[in-house]
Amino acid sequence: MLTFILCTCQLLSWMSTHVELSNGIKMPVLGLGTWLSKPEEVEDAVRNAIDVGYRLIDTAACYGNEAEIGKVLKEYFEEGKLKREDIFITTKLWCTHLHPNEIEAELRESLKKLQLDYVDLYLVHMPTAFSSDMSAQDHSVKVEDTWKGVEEAYKKGLARSIGVSNFSADQIHRIQKIASVPIHNNQVELHLYFPQFELQEVCNQYKISLTAYAPLGSPGRVNFNLVNWEKSPNPLENDVVLKLAQKYHKTPAQILLRHLIQRKIAVIPKSVNASRIKENFEVFDFSLTVEEINELNSVPRGKRLFKQEFLIGHPEDPMKDER
Ligand SMILES: NC(=O)c1ccc[n+]([C@@H]2O[C@H](COP(=O)([O-])OP(=O)(O)OC[C@H]3O[C@@H](n4cnc5c(N)ncnc54)[C@H](OP(=O)(O)O)[C@@H]3O)[C@@H](O)[C@H]2O)c1
Ligand SMILES: *[C@@H]1O[C@H](CO)[C@@H](O)[C@H](O)[C@H]1NC(C)=O
Ligand SMILES: *[C@@H]1O[C@H](CO)[C@@H](O)[C@H](O)[C@H]1NC(C)=O
């Protein structure tokens, strides 16, 4: 009897495809990332993703592809292939519009492009304000000010949940102290070599769900040549990952995603390749053991990939303590 109960619980947790935010909203634990997905590629990527079962699309005003994503969503709604309430759309407020009185208009701009009445999650993309052409840092806005503007948009029903991205633990504490609506989600760089255990603790304390960007180690980041990327090891080639891939007849990407999902972290792998989009979704039919999770958790840590050097000198630079 006990074995039966244990097995059922384990089975349910394997099948678990959503995380619940602190306001009761259910967010899929796996979504499609679209950073660096070109407007002409992203439409098919979103179609492929929805067709194989993805129900979360992650975009941002600054990715320049909201309109293409909106076009596909409209097509699927009109053809009756998808209902609005069955898909979770995340977009982000860019750092040129962090003044509280600009936020509603910015979100409405994103909604117009996405052809939606609301988004499911609206994230403040970065804690640091910049001038409208990004040429200068704007030191006049604090994260608390921005949060007040985001709360207003939430209260008007333009976003079903709200959160932050690239914020430090300290900035999260500051917001929680003044918030009338708490942070529901935090999206940060998180992968095998940058596991963010300490930040996860802080988020747990406030019931903030965590989303991993670059869950595969962002192998495509080199295509973004505004940044001088340091060479760093590729998690897809890690020995423990390769060993587990062989054991479970899975790919290294599937092992990396499954590991984070079992850590209760949402993942948004980016791909514009149909076979990888499908591959990245096939992670709900197996489960790593506790020992294997621990082995992956113990892999030596590496350095942060996204150092954001253009934030140096900004009073809200989230990484000032580690520079
Ligand atoms: N909040 C933020 O500041 C922030 C920053 C960065 C990213 N993000 C979000 O997080 C998403 C994911 O991060 P990311 O795009 O940097 O990195 P990622 O998802 O770790 O990696 C994406 C790269 O891996 C390749 N890839 C995808 N699936 C693969 C597979 N199964 N096997 C081998 N290679 C595979 C993709 O190429 P192909 O497309 O050719 O398959 C792409 O080059 C972004 O798209 C974006 O939505 C957010
Ligand atoms: C985080 O930092 C990365 C690297 O600078 C940047 O590309 C991304 O837009 C930022 N996103 C968030 C959520 O801060
Ligand atoms: C798409 O992904 C498959 C499987 O990983 C890979 O073999 C193929 O080369 C990729 N195609 C492109 C155009 O990158």
UniProtKB/TrEMBL annotation:
SUPFAM superfamilies on file: NAD(P)-linked oxidoreductase
Chain sites annotated for binding substrate: 125
Catalytic residue list: 63
Domain NADP-dependent oxidoreductase: 30-299
Keyword annotations from UniProtKB, A to Z: Signal
Gene Ontology molecular function: any one: oxidoreductase activity
UniProt site positions, description: Lowers pKa of active site Tyr: 92
Signal peptide: 1-24
InterPro entries from the UniProt entry: AKR (IPR020471), Aldo/ket_reductase_CS (IPR018170), NAD(P)_OxRdtase_dom_sf (IPR036812), NADP_OxRdtase_dom (IPR023210)
Keyword Signal: yes
PANTHER family attached to this UniProt entry: ALDO/KETO REDUCTASE
Name of the protein this chain belongs to: NADP-dependent oxidoreductase domain-containing protein
Species this protein is from: Acrobeloides nanus
Lineage of producing organism: Eukaryota, Metazoa, Ecdysozoa, Nematoda, Chromadorea
